[in-house]
Structures are given as C-alpha cells and as structure tokens.
Amino acid sequence: MQPEEDQERLVQIVGQALDMALKSLVANRRLEGDGLCQDIRNKLQTLDKYRVGLLGLASQVVATYQEKLTKRIQELTSGVDIDPNRLATEVAIFADKSDITEETVRIESHLKQFQQIFDSNEPIGRRMDFLIQELNREINTVGSKASDINIAQLVINFKAELEKIREQIQNIE
C-alpha cells in the first residue's frame, strides 16, 4: 500500500473506533442517568410520604398542647378557676406559631416541580440543586416550628433523604 492510502485507511479506522467509543459513552451515560432518575424519583416519593406525615401530626399538635397546658395550669393553680378565654388565647397563639401549612404546601409544590424537571430535555442539574435548597429551607422552617418529637423526627428523616438526593444530583448535568 501507498503511504497516502495507509493514512486514509488509518483515519477511517480511527474515525470508526472514535464513533463507537462515543456511542458507547452516550449509551452508558443514558443508562446511568436513567438509574439516577429512578433513584431520585423513589426518594421524592419518600419525601412526599414524610410531608403527608407532617400534615397528619400537625393537626394533632395544637390539641395536645391545649391538653397539656390545661393540665399544667390546673396542677399549678391547685383547683383555682382559670379563665377559659385566656387559655383559648394562649392556645390560639401557639397554633399560629406552630402552623406548618404554608411550608408543607411549598414542599408539595417543589416536589411536583421536580417531577416536571424529569420530563425536560434540557440540562436539569442546576434546577434540581435549586429545588433542593428550597426544600431544605422549608423543612428547616418546619423544624424550627416543631414542638412535637414526632414532627422533629420526620424533619430529621426528611433532611437525611434530601441529602441523599443532593448527592445524586451532583452526578447530573
């Protein structure tokens, strides 16, 4: 063979090998991405279960507080009549301070936005990272309002799962 023919053949072989390598790389990245997406979707479902759990517990917190406050006041006042209006006011103030409805609504919205991002054909890593920050902000607020050990435990679980998602997102463009 002529040196020119050898060089043309070499370019052709190298081109084919490069094409095969690139196709393999793309296929492997797609496979890895599909696995990451499924893992994140599963974790998002877990977060939504925690959100629902928070809502269920939140509805009980005020009643429990009222019961404990009434009992404690009765213990401290040794049977002296207490003003039911004053007690109701204290319970209302507590209910307002401990209300997590707004945060759970935002959490639900952010979780839905995550699902929509998966359907996008654009790079999604940065948008997911932003939503993780927003979810973290909301769950921190819930934690600061929590006066219930069960809510505090759900907040801890939520944050742990959120951190797992954050780690996975670092592998997504």
In short:
The protein has 173 residues and is mainly alpha-helical.
Describe this structure in words.
This protein is mostly helical and 173 residues long. The protein has one domain. It is 87% helix and 0% strand. It is built from 5 helices and no strands. Helix 1 runs antiparallel to helix 5 (149-169) and helix 4 packs antiparallel against helix 5. It is rod-shaped. The two termini are 46 Å apart. The model has no long low-confidence stretch (mean pLDDT 86).
List key phrases describing it.
rod-shaped; 87% helix; 173 residues; mainly alpha
Show the helix and strand layout.
Elements: H1 3-77, H2 84-98, H3 101-118, H4 125-145, H5 149-169
Helix pairs in contact: 1-2, 1-3, 1-5, 3-4, 4-5
| Secondary-structure content class | mainly alpha
Low-pLDDT windows of residues = none
Number of strands: 0
Binned strand content: under 5%
How many helices?
5
* Percent range of helical residues: over 70%
Domain module count: 1
Order of helices and strands: HHHHH
For the largest beta-sheet, the strand count, sense and barrel status come to:
none
Overall spatial form: rod-shaped
Terminal CA distance: 46 Å
The overall pLDDT, averaged over residues, is: 86
Oligomer: single chain
Global Rg: 28 Å
